[in-house]
Amino acid sequence: MVKINLGCGKRLVKGFINVDFEDTKDIDVNWNLEKIPYPFKDKQFKVVLMYNILEHLSDPYAVMKEIYRITKPGAKIHLYVPHFSSDKAWGDIQHKKGYSSEAFTAPDMSKMYSVKKLKIGFSRYRIITPIFANLFVRAYEKLFAYIFPASHLDVLLIRKG
C-alpha cells in the first residue's frame, strides 16, 4: 500500500495502512508517533492522512521532517488541525498547540512542502465569516480570529522533490 493514516485511533480508512499508538482491533501498525524514525522505508508513501493528530505531538516539526522522509516527491499530505482561536485547540488537555495558516508556510516548512489547499473551518452556524476568512486569511487571523473564532484548518500539502 502507498497510503498511510497516521494516528488513526478508531478512524480506520480502507486502503490505507492505519497506524496508532493504542493497539486496538484492526489497526495495521502499532506505533507511537513521538518515536522517530518511523518503521517505514524512505519515499514509501504517496498519500498521508493526519486527522487531529499533529496538535497532540511534542515536536510537530520533527514529525513533518519524518513524514518528508517516508513520502515520495509529489506526495499529498492531508492535515486537519485545530485553529489557534478555537476552544477545541485548548479544550483538550492533551493538545500541545493550535495552528495558524503561517505554520505551514514558514520557511522551514516551505523547503519541504508546498501548500496546495488551506481552508479555515468554522462551526456550521457561521455564514459570512468563513467567506471573509478564507479570502483574507492573514487579515482574519491577525484582526478577527478571537472575535469570530474558527474551528480548524484543513490543509493539503504537496511534498517537494
CATH class: Alpha Beta
Question: What is the overall number of helices?
Answer: 5
Bulk shape? globular
Structural class: alpha/beta
| Topology pattern, helix = H, strand = E | EEEEHEHHEHHE
Low-confidence stretches: none
Q: What is the straight-line distance between the termini?
A: 21 Å
Overall tally of structural domains: 1
Strand arrangement, largest sheet? 3-2-1-4-5-7-6
Q: How many β strands by DSSP?
A: 7
Give a structural overview.
This protein has helices at 60-70, 87-90, 107-112, 128-135, 137-144, and strands at 3-6, 17-20, 29-30, 45-51, 71-82, 113-121, 152-159. With 161 residues, the chain is α/β, with parallel strands linked by helices. The chain has one domain (3-159): Rossmann fold. Strands 3-2-1-4-5-7-6 form a 7-stranded mixed sheet. Strand 4, helix 1 and strand 5 (71-82) form a beta-alpha-beta unit. Helix 4 (128-135) packs across helix 5. The model has no long low-confidence stretch (mean pLDDT 94).
Q: How is this structure best summarized?
A:
The chain is built from five helices and seven strands, in the order ββββαβααβααβ.
Question: What is the topological layout?
Answer:
Elements lengths: L2 E4 L10 E4 L8 E2 L14 E7 L8 H11 E12 L4 H4 L16 H6 E9 L6 H8 L1 H8 L7 E8 L2
Parallel strand pairs: 1-2, 1-4, 2-3, 4-5
Antiparallel strand pairs: 5-7, 6-7
